From TrEMBL:
Cofactor: [4Fe-4S] cluster
Superkingdom of origin organism: Bacteria
GO molecular function: 4 iron, 4 sulfur cluster binding; catalytic activity; metal ion binding
A Pfam match: Radical_SAM
Keywords assigned by UniProt, alphabetized: 4Fe-4S, Iron, Iron-sulfur, Metal-binding, S-adenosyl-L-methionine
Protein name in the entry: Radical SAM domain protein
Keyword Iron-sulfur: yes
Residue ranges of domain Radical SAM core in the record: 13-239
UniProt KW Secreted keyword: no
Organism of origin: Chloroherpeton thalassium (strain ATCC 35110 / GB-78)
SUPFAM superfamilies noted in UniProt: Radical SAM enzymes (SSF102114)
Amino acid sequence: MKYVFGPISSRRLGKSLGVDPIPSKTCNWNCVYCQLGRTRPLANERKEFVSTQEIVSEIREAVCQHKPSEIDWISFVGSGEPTLHAGIGRMIREVKSFTEIPVAVITNGSLLSLPEVRADLQPADTVLPTLSAGSETLFRTIHRPHPDLTFAKHVDGLKAFRDEYHGKLWVEVMLLKEVNDSEEELRKLADILRDLSPDAVHLVLPTRPAAESWVKLPEYDGLMRAQAIFAGIAEIVHPAKGTLDLNADENIVQSILNVISRHPVMHQELEEALNAEPKITDPESVFAALRKSEQAQEVLQNGVLFWASSSAKETE
Ligand code: SF4
């Protein structure tokens, strides 16, 4: 499969069948915390990067290959900004026509100021846009967006979508140490969130290796401060531990490489998945094969060992 992966354990969506509709790291933001490295160059034009019909066919095939209990969500996510694909609306509508599995779209929300993008996302059951800054300055510091994208446009797009959308709107706030975890910045964010009135606000943390090496997890007091200031409108969602689906591909090493090309995986999580897989008798040989492949690397982030794509991390 070229565009569909998993199901994988997701922070917010349980067993998630991922759909990656655009070429690697095609994005209009260049977030300092991005787990895929830096965006070069920024892309802000919507296109049918790959055939919409081909993607829908892969989703249909993947759904047929799994029992209903094995997939909680079909998630449009991938290695960049999925709403840049001009066919995303048709993909969602077609998926809704052949399965009752709920559809989620994980987006930076940057294109919600466009009426056609808001219309495209209407049939989704849940949309998870990002709002991690309460001011233009911080918005630019964290997301380093395409020059056409401003903070005001971003917030206006979110509000317009909130007014029109009938599904669940879960806003994701990425909390970064000494960047947006001060009382002043959190209060600015809380004001916008209250006004936006989403169905849920998820605080998430940069637990995976980030594009910039200076990105750090907030300290305990930063997390507590955020919880206190967002009281009543937010819940903290910590990264979920789960089981990787290593049956997705006949070649187990290739299956792991497919997953880590999209996001890093904790060594411990991978080890648990390999130990649970009956056809793997020697997990160490799989790790050795990953090292030998030269397509994977081990990265230590905040004291936790991850497996990441060898090209994923670009730091100073
Ligand atoms: S985190 Fe998402 S929005 Fe930000 S640069 Fe990476 S892919 Fe784009």
